[in-house]
Request: fold
Amino acid sequence: MLEQIDRYIEDLCTPEPDAFKQAVRDAVAAGLPEIQVSPNEGKLLYLLAKIAGARRILEIGLLGGYSTLWLASALPADGQLITLELDEDYATVARRNIERAGLLAKVSIRVGPAADALEKMVQQSEPAFDLVFIDADKDGYPVYLEYALRLTRPGSLILADNVIRGGRVTDPRNTDLSVRAIREFNQKLASHPGLETILLPIMRHDVDGLAIARVKE
Ligand code: SAH
Ligand code: DHB
Ligand code: MG
Reply:
């Protein structure tokens, strides 16, 4: 049923450019894990970036560039998206996908551990991002949140994928490292006095979620 509803919404609301569909096909053919956001979640990211009027976006976790395509296509002509990826081979696949979609001029890919790139951005006083999308290793989420808070301004959005994990985050008996890290992340995001936050369930084969937080004025 979840999948049927997701498909219904997708058919109605989420027509995709061919280059987006091809990006997923190429990523799968290259052996990348099929863990990109769904088309409907991609459309939601796109809408949030548009609604926020984002001109500068930071993405943590590129994979084959599928979510990047949605976010970058929400940017104005002079907008910029910086995306961080650990795996050089994934980044090569993603670069080709982003180029084919005509979006490479707006996207800059930084290969290496995200925490290193984030620390460098803080050290170099990188101008604030209007939107940060966290979607890399789940264990890193609490650290990525600290950096996101330092790299944003009042009114910016901090988004994070995979915050529900099929409901595993709600089960206190589940002590997996990544589930504990997401639980800690959600707790920090929800209780931070400088943020206003909601966790939005996202359905596909299973229920996961997108965290949406806005930095208060
Ligand atoms: N945002 C993508 C999916 C990202 S999957 C989409 O929806 O299309 C998570 C990605 O994070 C993987 O590509 C993985 O290689 C990357 N990753 C894992 N650990 C990382 C780290 N420490 N630094 C940067 N990227 C990392
Ligand atoms: C998985 C899903 C994701 O969206 C992600 O970013 C990382 C991992 C997963 O289902 O394992
Ligand atoms: Mg994800």
Summary: The mean pLDDT is 97. Residues 60 and 134 are 5 Å apart (CA to CA). Residues 35, 61, 135, 161-162 surround 3,4-dihydroxybenzoic acid (ligand 2) (CB under 6 Å). Strands lie at 56-60, 80-85, 107-111, 129-134, 152-161, 195-203, 207-215.
